[in-house]
# Entry
Amino acid sequence: MRKFVIGNWKMNGDALEVHEYVHELKTALEGMPCSVGVAVPFLYLPQLTALLGRIPVSVVAQDVSQFKGSGAYTGEISAAMLRDAGCEYVLIGHSERRQYFDEDEMVLQQKLLCACEAGLNPIYCVGEDLNQRLQGEFFQVLDKQLAALEAVRDHLPATVWVAYEPVWAIGTGKVASAEQIAEVHAFLATRLRAILPARCAARLLYGGSVKSVNAREILALPGVDGVLVGSASLTVAELSRIIEEARAMA
Ligand code: PEP
# Structure
């Protein structure tokens, strides 16, 4: 199965950049079978969908409302709206959402449910912070974070995406070592086999300072089905080098 490469723009870019990015991406991916997703800010999702047209790149949202349906939730974007904007996937539980918006497992559980019910594929992000890593508490932290997935197990799609993103590696230039990634991915795979219903299969991404220079080593690790790329996804040149590495391993 092809490795999945997802670029997360976070709160970066503008309409012109989305336009130029898709134009460059189209050229870069020409004749290159791959599995790629791009997460731009909410505002640019319909534009991204329209510009991509038949280019086989999935549109990914960076977040979704925890509230079901529609209603008096000023400022919120529902899962159905994201579907309407052409999204196939949505990041849920990114560490920046947990850190700056106090999103806890209760909120994330609601978000997961909303996404699944609207037919969006959640990419559930988990990861320990530096202190938890140093204290050797990371398995407990990850287990606690997985509880939100377990709570919605009956609603999950057949393929369940989980991204391991150690907080200390996000945007810091510090990549987890091959041993650390392989160890956590093996742990997650085991836990997910126990948590998920038999009809579901888990696929695992690694995220945290992935660049073209380290992508090959990370993508080659056992249990790594792809990468979630932040800052390095902001230029097509760098993202397409990572995609090339992923493609070479399919
Ligand atoms: C991310 O935003 O999910 C991420 C992994 O960021 P970076 O690649 O910049 O560390």
About this structure: The chain has ten helices and eight strands. The beta strands are 4-8, 35-39, 57-61, 89-92, 121-126, 159-164, 201-207, 226-229. The pocket of phosphoenolpyruvate is lined by residues 8, 10, 165, 170-171, 207-210, 228-232 (CB under 6 Å). The chain has one domain: 4-249.
